[in-house]
Amino acid sequence: xxxxxxxxxxxxxxxxxxxxxxxxxxxxxxxxxxxxxxxxxx
Length: 42
Prior knowledge:
Elements: E1 2-8, E2 11-21, E3 28-38
Antiparallel strand pairs: 1-2, 2-3
């Protein structure tokens, strides 16, 4: 698991994500576990 930082509408948001490899396609995928919110609010 890792902390994912993204940008939307000029604001930065944080979320906890889990990375895994898809068994069918072999590609790496990420699944958001919990959205923490916007950085300026936290």
